[in-house]
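Marked as duplicate of an earlier ticket. Keeping the data here for the record.
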Amino acid sequence: MIVTRAHLTGFAVGVGVSAFGYYLYKKNEDKVDQLLRKQGIDIPVSGKKDYNSMTLEELVGQKEHIEDLIAEKEMITNQLSVATPVE
């Protein structure tokens, strides 16, 4: 298959439109997510968290989740270091 100028133009336009759409979404992320939730679409809460407004239970849950992630990373690192032979 020969790549023509039309293919390249279509690709460039597609990338541009996608980038512009992503920019608009990020600019209005809260509004779009709220609209989608109202429509019944389950959108995970974004990574932006105001820790000062969280309850103690939420903070402890967040702490436990982070500790679990750290333990998993340490376990993977230890397994890799054991599996890699040292010469």
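See parent ticket for discussion. The chain has two domains: 1-47, 49-87.
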